[in-house]
Amino acid sequence: MKKAIIFDMDGTLFQTNLILEPALSATFDVLRTKGLWQGETPIAQYREIMGVTLPVVWETLCPMHTLEVREASNVLFHEKLIELIRNGKGALYPNAEQTLATLANDYHLYIASNGQKEYLQAIVETYKLNRFIEGTYSIQSIPSGHKSDLVRSVIEANAIQAGTVVGDRSSDIQAARDNQLFSIGVRFDFAQESELQKAHIVINNLQEIPSALATIL
């Protein structure tokens, strides 16, 4: 039986919080210079909705902007994120590499993320995650924009018969449930307790995953 683990990226493997504020601040600085934004950068608001798709992000942060302005903001934001990643300003969560190396001996590992392809590729390349990860999948390939459909596409593309989704938000846990997979919630930076309660198991460190899997797979 082909067993797999499907990881979320932001707030699960990668410490997005380290680059979120500088990238978002730089983006809104540009909006201010163009007269398109007044007031503080909505960093706290973004942290609350972390994990939703990017169109929803910009609709939420900038509801008064046109679609064209939102798309331009998203492009600039991602340029800043990727620049910070390439310059080593981000980081994986503690024990991420060791845990992935251990798991890769017994499971097929994949990433399914609401992040854009270029952004995900920057992280994978910077931290050489292809040593462990067999495939990285972006929500950009899914017309519906739903995490459950993204996870389903990973399952179908790789003939996965059993597995677990590891993530920090309700969309990850729901994606596992919708696809008859187990779920492991990670209590990291963007996680919310009310959402984690729906996971089969909740962990505080990635190195807990092997022992957690032993109880559910």
From TrEMBL:
Keywords: Hydrolase, Magnesium
Lineage: Bacteria, Bacillati, Bacillota, Bacilli, Bacillales
Protein name per UniProt: Hydrolase, haloacid dehalogenase-like family
GO annotation, cellular component aspect: cytosol
GO molecular function: phosphoglycolate phosphatase activity
UniProt KW rRNA processing keyword: no
Domain of life: Bacteria
Native source species: Lysinibacillus sphaericus (Bacillus sphaericus)
Classification via SUPFAM superfamilies: HAD-like
Pfam families linked: HAD_2
Keyword Nucleotide-binding on entry: no
InterPro entries: HAD-like_hydrolase_sf, HAD-like_sf, HAD_2, HAD_sf, PGP-like_dom2
A GO biological-process term: DNA repair
